[in-house]
Amino acid sequence: MIDLDDIRTRYQQACKFLDERGRRLFAANEALALGHGGVTAASAATGLARSTIRRAIVELQSGANPIGPRVRRKGGGRKSAVTLQPELPGVLETLIEDAIRGDPETPLRWVSRSQRQIARVLGERGFAVSQKLVGLLLRELGYSCQANCKTREGTNHPDRDAQFAHINTVVQAAMAAGQPAISVDTKKKELVGDFKNPGRELRPKGQPEPVRVHDFELPDLGKVAPYGVYDLAANAGWVNVGVDADTAAFAVESIRRWWQQLGQTRYPEAKRLIITADCGGSNGARVRLWKRELQRFANECGLAVTVAHLPPGTSSRVEDRRGDCSLPVGCRRRFRPPPQSGLTWLRFLSPLVKPDVQISRIRLSPASSSLRARQVGAMERQGV
User: Fold this and answer.
1) Residues of the chain scoring pLDDT < 50
2) Which terminus of the chain, N or C, has fewer Cβ atoms within 10 Å?
3) How many CB atoms lie within 10 A of CB 263?
4) CB of 278 within 8 A of CB of 246?
5) How far apart are CA 236 and CA 325, in angstroms?
C-alpha cells in the first residue's frame, strides 16, 4: 500500500531548499523506491509531470551528469518572449522614440510614459508583455529613468560676457569706495504651519517632531514670501517675510527696511547704492512699479540708486550664497517669532547667507499698493 501523504510530507519539507533539478530528482528517487506504480504515486504526491519524473529516473540510472551545474539541459524550458516575438524590441524602441520626439499622433503621451502604460500599449498592438518584461527590455536597450538636466540656455547675447564684466566693475568700484552694494531676490514661497521639510535635527530618541501628513495650505495662515537682501561687502543677509503678495512694492520695501535697520548704520557715509538683481519676478527689468517704488525710496533716503540687472538665465548672489551656512542646502531652518507678533512657525528650506540672517514681516495694505510692516525681530544666525 503506497502512502501518498507520507511522500507529500517529505517532499514539502525538502522542496523549499531544492531547485528545479533537485525536486525532480527527489521525485524520481521516491518512484524508484516504490517500484511498480511509483511514477504515478510520485507524480500525484509532488505535482510533477510523469514525463519529468521518467526523465529524472533515466538521469539517476545513467550515473552520469550530462548537464553539469545547469538546472535544465541547454535549450530546455520556456522560450523567451523576444524569441517568440522577435519584433518586440524594435516596436518598443520605436514607441519610446516617438514619445521622446513629441509626436502628437503617437499612442503614448509623454505624461504617461511609464512601464505600465507601455505594456498596455504593446498589449493593444498584439504583444504578450508584462510590466516587468518591459522594464527588462528597456534596460537591455540602454534606457533608464533620468531626471531633467539643465543644459540648454537658448541664444546668448554676443555681449553677455561684457555685461558680467561691466556689472562686476561697477560693484567692485562701489565696494572699494565704501559704498553699499547689495543683491536681492525673492526665495521660494513657504507654507506657514507645522509642515514637513527635508532634513534632520537633534531630538530625544524616539520623539520626532509631529508634523502634518499633507502640505495643504492652511486658510487662516496662508503662505509667506521670503525676500532676501545680501550685502556683498559685509557678507550678511536680511530676510523680509511677506505675508500677502510678492510685488515690486514688497521688494522695494524689503530694501527700505534693510537700509533703515542695517544699511545706514553700516554705511554712514553712503552716497549711492548699487543693487544687483535677476531680470524676473517682482524686481524685473521691465516692471514699472519696481522703478517707481525705487524712485520713491531714493527720494526718501537721498541715495543715488543704481540697479544692475543680470542677463537672462542668471541667478542672483542671494541664490549663490545660500549654501554658505553651517547647515547644507535643503536642511530645515525654522524661526519661532515672539508670541505678540501674531505669527506661527515659519520654515525655510535653506538659509540665505552668513553670518547673520535677520527677519522682518511685511503685509500689503488691501486698500492700495502702499505697505504696512511690523518688525518681528532681528536675530543672529544661531537663532534662526
Assistant:
1) 102, 109-111, 322-384
2) N
3) 23
4) no
5) 11
Cβ 185 vs Cβ 278: under 8 Å: yes
- The 10s digit of each residue's pLDDT in 89-140 is 888 888 877 666 545 555 554 445 788 888 888 999 899 999 999 888 888 8
DSSP state of 299: H
Is the pTM higher than 0.90?
no
**DSSP bridge partners of 177:** none
223 - beta bridge partners? 191
Angle at 251 between CA 255 and CA 174, to 5 degrees: 40
What gap in Å lies between CA 203 and CA 191, rounded to an integer?
A: 23
Element (H, E) at 238: strand 236-242
Q: Which residues pair with 237 in a beta bridge?
A: 230, 357
Say how many residues make up the chain.
384
* Cα–Cα dist 119/116, whole Å: 5
CB atoms within 10 A of CB 360: 22
Q: Quick check: 374 and 363 in contact, CB under 8 A?
A: yes
Residues whose CB is less than 8 angstroms from the CB of residue 176 and which lie 6 or more positions away in sequence, other chains included: none
Cell numbers placing 55 = 526523465
- CB of 312 within 8 A of CB of 306? no
Per-residue b or e along 165-174, where b marks 16 or more CB atoms closer than 10 Å to that residue's CB = eebeeebeeb
What is the rounded end-to-end Cα distance, in angstroms, of the chain?
A: 84
| Helix H or strand E encompassing 184 | strand 181-186
Query: Which secondary structure element, helix H or strand E, spans residue 306, and what is its range?
Result: strand 304-309
Task: Count CB neighbours of 365 within 10 A.
Answer: 11
Residue 44 host element (H or E): helix 38-46
